[in-house]
C-alpha cells in the first residue's frame, strides 16, 4: 500500500528536517517546503488529491500559516485536506488561531506530533 503523503510547511530548517525525519520513520512520505508561498506552488504543480495532510507552522515569512490556510480552504479540491497547525504564537481572544483540524503548541514532542497526525490520517 502507498504510504500517506504529508505536506510539511515550516520555515525553520532544523525543525522541518526533524519533523520530516520523524514522519518518514513512522511510515509517511513527506514533501517539505519553507513557507506558504512555496506550499501553494507545490500544491498547484503536484497531484494534491493524493495528499493526506498538511502540517504547517503559523508564523513564517513570505506567506504565513493563516494566509496559506485561507487559500487552501477557499479551493474546493484542497479544502478537503486535513490540516495540522503548529504554533509558538501567543493566542488571545483578539488574535484567535485560524480554523484547522488540529493544533500543536510549540514546543511539542514527537510523540504528540505522531499522535495528532495519526488521528488525522487514516491508515489502510
What can you see in these coordinates?
Helix content is 35%, strand content 21%. The chain starts with a strand and ends with a helix. A 5-stranded parallel beta sheet has the order 2-1-3-4-5. The chain has a single domain, classed as Response regulator (Rossmann fold). The protein is of the alpha/beta class and 124 residues long. Helix 1 links the parallel strand 1 and strand 2 (29-33). It has helices spanning 13-25, 36-45, 65-74, 110-120, and strands at residues 5-9, 29-33, 51-57, 83-87, 102-105.
CATH superfamily: Response regulator
- Ends apart, CA distance between termini: 8 Å
Q: Which topology does CATH recognise?
A: Rossmann fold
Largest sheet: 5 strands, parallel
Estimate what percentage of residues fall within beta strands.
15-25%
CATH class: Alpha Beta
The residue-averaged pLDDT reads 87
Strand neighbour order, sheet with most strands:
2-1-3-4-5
What integer value in Å does the Rg equal? 13 Å
What string gives the helices and strands in order? Answer: EHEHEHEEH
Q: Unreliable stretches, pLDDT < 50, 5 or more residues? A: none
Q: Please state the structural category.
A: alpha/beta
Tell me the CATH architecture.
3-Layer(aba) Sandwich
The domain count comes to 1
Amino acid at each position: 500500500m502507498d504510504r500517506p503523503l504529508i505536506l510539511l510547511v515550516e520555515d525553520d530548517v532544523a525543525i522541518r528536517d526533524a519533523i520530516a525525519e520523524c514522519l518518514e520513520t513512522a511510515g509517511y512520505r513527506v514533501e517539505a517546503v519553507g513557507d506558504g508561498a512555496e506550499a501553494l506552488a507545490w500544491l498547484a504543480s503536484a497531484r494534491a488529491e493524493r495528499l493526506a495532510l498538511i502540517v504547517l507552522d503559523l508564523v513564517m515569512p513570505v506567506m504565513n500559516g493563516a494566509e496559506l490556510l485561507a487559500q487552501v480552504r477557499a479551493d474546493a479540491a484542497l479544502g478537503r485536506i486535513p490540516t495540522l497547525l503548529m504554533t509558538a504564537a501567543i493566542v488571545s481572544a483578539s488574535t484567535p488561531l485560524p480554523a484547522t483540524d488540529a493544533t500543536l503548541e510549540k514546543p511539542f514532542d514527537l510523540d504528540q506530533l505522531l499522535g495528532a497526525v495519526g488521528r488525522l490520517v487514516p491508515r489502510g
